[in-house]
What we know:
The chain has two domains: 11-138, Rossmann fold (3-Layer(aba) Sandwich); 141-293 and 313-339, Dihydrodipicolinate Reductase, domain 2 (2-Layer Sandwich), CATH 3.30.360. The chain has twelve helices and 15 strands. The chain has helices at 20-32, 46-59, 70-77, 93-102, 117-130, 139-142, 144-155, 172-176, 184-187, 196-207, 296-305, 314-332, and strands at residues 11-16, 36-37, 41-42, 83-86, 106-110, 134-137, 163-170, 211-219, 228-235, 240-246, 253-260, 264-268, 275-279, 286-287, 338-339. Helix 1 (20-32) runs parallel beside helix 2 (46-59).
Amino acid sequence: MKPLDKPTDPVRVAFIGCxxxxxxxxxxxxxxxxxxxxxxxxxxxxxQYEFTAENFRLAGRPVPPNEPDLxxxxxxxxxxxxxxxIVTPHVFHHEQTVACLEAGLxxxxxxxxxxxxxxAKSLIETRDRSGRLLVVAFNGSLSPEIRxxxxxxxxxxxxxxxSISATIWQNWRELTGISWRQIPSEAGGGFMFDTGAHMLNxxxxxxxxxxxxxxxxxxxxxxxxxxxxxxxxxxxxxxLVSMHGSGETVPSCASDIRVFCPGAILRTGAWGGFLEIQRxxxxxFEKVDVPPSVGAWEQFLAVxxxxxxxxxxxxxxxxxxxxxxxIRASAANxxxxxxxxx
Length: 342
């Protein structure tokens, strides 16, 4: 197993997947992280690779070669790599992450981590066995707003959580069209498992305890995957949670999450982005000051250096996988509540 590189060494990362989301991450890395090198990418679609190559040209950086087969890439380039950034359809996350961890690479993995609980447990076992780092790129868990909110809630200063209300919406059906995101075997779900995954993860992060009972309804609206969903749940403490997602609405993408405690109401978003509090006796919400926001790649580097505890380890993905498995099971049985066992 390769040791972690020294803090002053460039980090050599392979991009696994070169679609729109990968290029969004790349544009930030190529502009702001000159000590991050991309020796190779892995993309089966020549057109997507060409789009990515143009990103490098515009940034004045060398265009990396493309090796479409991950096993071949790891065999040929593995000794020249420190990390992998996996940004592929959900169905590939488990197998690709296992392969990269076992090849001795640290991994930054796009959300949702995996398709189900079994895959989540497998990734944790592989992480432990390989001794490598795995960070899940959940915007909420990586945001200063959610980290601050979790600290406030766990400190007890607001009193115990009584209930959580969350909603998220986007004109997702229109935007995703005929892409893989509406193919069940590749996506693992529809709006609630894609954009909605941010809401599910952040709500679970804020809750800070296991879900014990879940009832859910998913409506495909004639599509191949869920477009609208509603979830009612109970936490181990008895606190109640409601979550709603609409993937067929006016052009927009937003969310609202409120945590109700005896001493205050917290309001934030699925991606973080803002944090407000209304304390007892105050007529309206006030902004909560938080540290500056730091992007996914910068946090990944900080965790690798040992400067930051991992804010989004695979245990985060396991927590959401339990919730998603329960949502699917209840929805498949017309909302009959599912009791979770861990």
